[in-house]
From TrEMBL, chains A, B:
Keywords, in A-Z order: Hydrolase, Protease, Proteasome
InterPro entries attached to this UniProt entry: Ntn_hydrolases_N, Proteasome_sua/b, UCP009120_prtse
Origin superkingdom: Bacteria
BP term (GO), one: proteolysis
Name by which UniProt lists this protein: Proteasome-type protease
GO cellular component terms, semicolon-separated: proteasome complex
Source organism: Roseateles amylovorans
Any one GO MF annotation of this record: peptidase activity
Species classification: Bacteria, Pseudomonadati, Pseudomonadota, Betaproteobacteria, Burkholderiales
Pfam families assigned: Proteasome
Length: 244, 244
């Protein structure tokens, strides 16, 4: 989420290659120079692809070519991530012929952060390497299993929401998704960044036992049930029921 | 939904062939003989396919072969719908070569109802023609744009829920989906069936102005916001915020 107050990044940590091969991998990757830049990459899709892209970006950040640690705008950073993604997908998928066996080598990235001289920005980089940027009208981006958790964000978040509201909403959104879909699981990695702070990043890992996550999860579940129960039954339904 | 109390069917009515070709089509089809049987078909997917399947089933219901109005179990009805679906997809897609242009001819059906001598039953018929049946453990089935509206059903519905609760939940589920996805739209067609009633079906069409839909939609939206606001902020967030 890219709000006036700052940025919030959140990612789950479940990967699967079929239901009998489920594992935990961090999907949040940080590149930072406190005082000057923070770049965060969240990943979804083929794990071989996303790991390779992150490894190459990290390896090359020591080199002479333009890289994540010396580019002067987040736009250029998103373009570099897109280019590196295309490079890896081409390398891994081309010329294999039958070997590919219908495997999807694609991946999606959320690329966000702030570089001194710019506002904080976030981008969604598609498997094709092109990308879109979040704006004030649509201040959040999602990748991966995004649908279950979208309605609550649409209802409560706008550009002027606080980082505390964003945190609460992100946890509810993940909680709903985790309940409805096996491919999303705890722990959740979360990072808050206050606009123009350029402070060292302090990611927070939320496990099943995290007291705040428990409070939000139980409070939300109980609250929803109360709201549901307090809504009235329908008249036409009552007619239908007694009419038989 | 297949509950102890009976069945609830609900479908939206939006179809699209790209965002510049959006139309309204009823996706709920009834075959009934009050006192003896009710068979309801809900459809999702390629509209040419779903209309053809329904037309063929209706046309053949006057013939001598086994058909929807004389089969003696809902299982056989689901099997016939699956077979007819395979027939239409084969007819429309095979031998076209380049003409297909990547079009997906597939469709999904929910087939449900009650035939005298059986319990009420509902099935999900897949594009391949095979099918699954809802059970007491998982008393609901969804087709089409199902993810946005799934979390609320998972939270409040079980086999012993009342038909009034089911109605309320289905409207909330559709309301959330309609807010988050352009391909789902009002009106909603809804049908309630009380177990063993074999009463004439009275479908209810819910438009934007339906007073109960308005009550539920506004009450739910307002209630969610209240629950959200009442949940506390996090301690670690407060530390993060003041630490900078």
């Amino acid at each position: 989420m890219r709000l006036r107050a700052g940025l919030l990044f959140a990612s789950d940590s479940r990967t699967n290659a079929g239901v009998d091969h489920i594992a935990t991998f961090r999907k949040m990757n940080l590149f930072e120079a406190p005082g000057e830049r923070l770049v965060t990459l969240l990943t979804a899709g083929n794990l071989a692809t996303t790991q390779s892209v992150v490894s190459l970006l990290r390896q090359r950040a020591a080199g002479n070519e333009p890289h994540l640690m010396n580019l002067s705008s987040m736009y250029d950073v998103a373009e570099l991530v897109g280019r590196t993604l295309r490079e890896v997908v081409s390398r891994d998928s081309e010329g294999n012929g039958q070997l590919n066996q219908g495997v999807d080598f694609g991946a999606n990235f959320i690329v966000g952060g702030q570089i001194r001289g710019e506002e904080p920005r976030i981008f969604h980089v598609y498997p094709q390497g092109n990308f879109i940027e979040a704006t004030e009208d649509t201040p959040y981006l999602q990748i991966g299993e995004s649908k279950y958790g979208k309605p609550i964000i649409d209802r409560v978040i706008d550009y002027d929401s606080s980082l505390a509201e964003a945190t609460k909403c992100a946890l509810i959104s993940f909680d709903s998704t985790i309940r409805s879909n096996l491919s999303v699981g705890l722990p959740i990695d979360m990072l808050l960044y206050k606009s123009d702070s350029f402070a060292p990043a302090v990611p927070h890992r939320i496990t099943r036992d995290d007291p705040y996550f428990k409070t939000v999860s139980q409070g939300w579940g109980g609250g929803l049930k109360r709201v549901f129960e307090q809504l009235p039954d329908d008249d036409w339904f009552a007619a239908e029921r007694t009419g038989q």
